[in-house]
Amino acid sequence: MTSTDPEQLWAPANPESTQSAKLAAHVSQKYGVQLSTYEDFWRWSCANRGDFWSEVWDWEGVIGDKGPAPYVDESARPKDNPKWFPNARLNWAENQLRNAAAHPADVAIIDTCEHTSDFKPAPREVSQKELVGLVAQAQAGMKAAGVQKGHRVAYWGGNRLEAAVTLLATTSLGAIFSSAAADFGVDGVIERLEQIKPHLLVVSNGCVYNQKHHPLLPLLPRLFTSLSHPPANTVIINHLPDELDDKVSVSQFLEGWHDGHTKLHRWADFVNHPAGVPTYERIGFNDPIWILFSSGTTGKPKAIVHRCGGMLIDALREHHIQGDISRGDVFFQYTTTGWMMYQYLIAGLATGATVLLYDGSPLKDPATCWNLIDAHGVSIFGTSAKYIEMVSKVYPDVGKKHALARLRQILSTGSPLAADLFDYVYANIKQDLLLGSVSGGTDICSVFAGRCTALPVYRGEIQCRQLGFYLDSTSSDAHEIPGELIVREAFPIEPVGFWPLPREYLPDGQNIAQADIDAAQARFLDSYFKDDAGNWYHGDFVKITRSRAGNSGGLVFLGRSDGVLNPQGIRFGPMDIYSVLENPAFAARGIEETLVVGLLVDGGNDEKVILFVKMYDGKALDDECLKLIKTSIRSARSARHVPARIVQVSDIPMTLTGKKIEVPIRKVINGAPVAAINPATLRNPACLQEYVGLGEAMRAEEGVLVPLLQ
Ligand SMILES: CC(=O)CC(=O)O
């Protein structure tokens, strides 16, 4: 330990009893190697990729046929996107439901949602056996509707039981799932469905958020008439009772809507088939399983297709081997169906744990998640860094108000977790738990920098690089020096490509133009690969620390790599600023949200750091607050980090998944047209125009006469 090492905040009581340590011992013995530390194991897993992932398959008892070795071409670069387990056959849903046979009465899913004064459904507990039956029924409905391997099934609605059943039934047939959250605007949904042309749409009649009913049915006519190929069948789920609100009556909608293209069904009718056990169509490891859309802000959303086998074995690596989640655990990840954390959550079923679903606002009543944790004995709670920050401001004394008796891990993602919030969690929520800041994202539908139960937690750092991923920064072995996050070796959760995939994956692809397939694959290559070595570029700016306690190096994420700031040659990420300001002291001063970007000056040779600040209603950015911001940044970082301008704005633009958009706003304030930003990808596109005006004014004041970015 050196004086610059961050404080160790937690350490496992019994690291050798963790799954990762046991697997390392098994590998050491089997391969005659000595893997004494996590770092040894991580290095071995990166150097022996076929063997490592094959060991994960065996250790996890994956149901299916692994096929013979070799399991991957070890010489292939990430850019070659090699096929993994080329002869394997497996089914994702079969593996998620595999615990039903031995433990039919275990609770598989607890389905909960936000209440209103006139809508208070009790939590639904669904046993393993019941879940299998529900999937069999939904599968029968899908078969009757003609759904087959490779067809797309889309879901639009809340994170409720029927969404999970739809996902499981879709994948049981080898069909491809895609989902949009209930709060996605209809334009965003049109843009997604138009790209993937689903055969079947399952849609909720509405949901509750912020104690209000949000009906979706009124949006359906616009959706259907806008799609060039409306789904042949649409199934409507009564998540809100008909009588709640006359705008949401499913009966009226079913009677009133006849467009002749899509056939409407009630969920209850669609699944009206005998329960029993579904059939499982085993497909190839590299066959598509679901399509996620990236929250890119220019152009159409990227339709990222993930591979079946990778999604299965990597989730087991993540949840069981590195997270020690297993039967008896209750896993609650706060998510909507529009975020990749949805798949991350449902994949917890394969461990035998109970998965808790909650649909609604996590903060309208800030006690909500903590009440669920107490009421249902949640042991693993996943949330976002933003949520933890908000809780620290609006409901700080969680640990005094809640027992949190079984809680042993809190996972945080979505954006980097500031060091102060590590302190907050350990001081105000619970001391004896693993606080895992984790990072990955839509592009890989998983986590590749994250938690490991065998390792300590250091303040402000992600614990480790996950097994099987040769993560590095472009500053390479010069650890502690920030650089771009890259993956140096191929990995099995690399997406198959963007939709539409090459024809070998398209059973019904005869109507897809080759030019569209080629354009999608070219966009895929362009999105992630930019050097001759064929490394994967993830788009993050990161610092990987020296290894401590054998942890393979901790990671500090510093913002999107293309949002890197560089005033007077000092490179730093927006997170360096956010981590100072995301602090209850600033919330108390009225700061709600901030965004940092660079304004190019000196012909583009230099830039000035601009901090946009949104204040809570009725609060103004006064001189005292400005002074506090500057002095805090100066003392926490350096004088070079102090923004050249601090500007109050009415809103900070956010993607549908709640991410700030530094890169497009940087372009806008430097003169690029706002039309390049796709408004359907934002929660609050109306605020963009304000940034156009601010950009013009700032450029005029800085004497920038010609816009420097297009
Ligand atoms: C795991 C993640 O990285 C989640 C996200 O930020 O989208």
Automatic annotation (TrEMBL):
Keywords: ATP-binding, Ligase, Nucleotide-binding. SUPFAM superfamilies: Acetyl-CoA synthetase-like (SSF56801). One of its GO terms (molecular function) is acetoacetate-CoA ligase activity. One of its GO terms (biological process) is lipid metabolic process. It comes from the Eukaryota. It holds the Pfam family AMP-binding. Residues 98-431 form the AMP-dependent synthetase/ligase domain. Belongs to the ATP-dependent AMP-binding enzyme family. This is Acetoacetate-CoA ligase. It comes from Cutaneotrichosporon oleaginosum. The lineage of its organism: Eukaryota, Fungi, Dikarya, Basidiomycota, Agaricomycotina.
